[in-house]
Design a protein that fits this description.
This protein is an alpha/beta fold. It is built from 16 helices and 12 strands.
């Protein structure tokens, strides 16, 4: 795709593409964790109420602590920061509040549809059952949708229930997801440490979901390479790949005699590209966790643009807004600055995401129409 001149957005001023504020554009968020999307001020307030020790003495400093602690270069160290957010997410009231604020923050960022993923099994220390936790989150989502609507911003948010790869409750979580399929839950996920905990450990749960025709998006290709993605597709029947950035390891760059550069596809990469299997790329998070270390340490080294130019179905996501101190607007702005994308490129990313949602086809088509209309304006 040809590149056109784009104004370079600034994190200190309104991020722009051309003369259009990126925040004003309709967006779709596919990969956004509830326990990574809290406001630092909310964590600070709730932790004080619960006497949870804090590493900072004010909300701003706490936000800086999350970002710095999550930027150590490995997924394991990135995940260590979640002990603090999880500590304040063990009651129905807190879960409802956090989910409501989560939706409000998405709406303020121009998101018109989002899928929030989280692991109910990590929210039972205060005595909640997993089903009670799911209902508390759903209550908060609906409150957030109503508040956004009153403020003039229509938004819909669905839940994706996550099971932890290192635990043994995936079948229980899978059945819970199916039980709530008419009450806000649209998908299932596996998250947590990727190395040493393959998708195949959860074959029973994933077979159950396949039998129920229930959509699956699995974390893969983040801390491990192409074999993890292969496992997600074959064992997990995944319809989307959470991150999936390391699919680029199945591509080989070849210089020809006339100094042209060509790319040779491995079988897996060609399958993912040709079948248009969506990749839930999260640029800032990928840099923090070291998922892109094989290519470099800056955004310009991220294989996002390579995958996009080669025709992969790329989508742009935040992963964990608190840990990455980011928003979808900021992620898109950084891509515009780095790769000189224009309005057409940003629209394509949103259309990819809209088509990849776990909504019924009629609602996906409505979402695509809303995006097209919004970008045309």
């Amino acid at each position: 795709m040809s590149r056109r001149t784009s104004s370079r957005g600034s994190s200190r001023r309104e991020a722009m593409v051309g003369n259009v504020p990126i925040r004003s554009l309709p967006k779709v968020s596919l990969h956004d964790h509830l326990d990574g999307g809290l406001r630092a001020s909310t964590v600070f307030e709730l932790a004080q109420e619960l006497d949870v020790p804090l590493p900072a003495d004010n909300p701003r400093a706490l936000g800086e602590w999350f970002a710095e602690s999550a930027s150590k270069g490995t997924l394991e160290e990135y995940l260590d920061t979640f002990h603090l957010t999880l500590a304040v997410m063990q009651t129905a009231d807190n879960l409802t509040r956090i989910a409501r604020e989560f939706v409000e923050d998405l709406a303020n960022d121009g998101v018109i549809y989002g899928e929030v993923r989280w692991a109910p099994e990590l929210h039972t220390d205060g005595g909640l059952t997993m089903a009670e936790a799911v209902q508390a989150v759903q209550d908060g989502i609906e409150e957030g949708e109503d508040a956004a609507d009153e403020a003039g911003h229509a938004i819909r948010v669905s839940q994706i229930l996550t099971a932890m790869r290192q635990a043994n409750r995936s079948l229980e979580v899978a059945k819970l997801a199916v039980d709530f399929r008419e009450d806000g839950v649209v998908g299932f996920d596996l998250a947590g440490p990727e190395q040493g905990f393959p998708v195949s450990r959860h074959a029973e749960a994933l077979s159950y979901l396949a039998g129920e025709f229930f959509p699956v998006s699995l974390h893969a290709g983040e801390a491990e390479g192409p074999e993890s993605i292969r496992d997600a597709l074959i064992t997990g029947r995944a319809l989307r790949i959470g991150h999936g950035v390391r699919i680029a390891e199945d591509l080989e760059t070849i210089e020809t005699e006339d100094d042209e550069v060509r790319v040779r596809f491995g079988d897996l990469a060609r399958w993912v590209r040709d079948r248009e299997i969506p990749l839930e790329l999260s640029p800032s998070s990928n840099l923090q966790t070291g998922a892109t270390a094989a290519w470099g340490a800056s955004l310009e080294d991220h294989p996002f643009d390579l995958l996009y130019q080669l025709g992969f179905c790329v989508t742009v996501n935040t992963d964990n807004r608190l840990m990455s101190r980011t928003t979808l607007t900021r992620e898109l702005s950084q891509l515009v600055e780095t790769f000189e994308y224009d309005l057409d490129d940003l629209e394509q990313f949103q259309l990819n995401a809209a088509a990849a949602t776990f909504l019924p086809v009629e609602l996906r088509e409505e979402l695509i129409d809303l995006i097209t209309e919004g970008f045309n304006r």
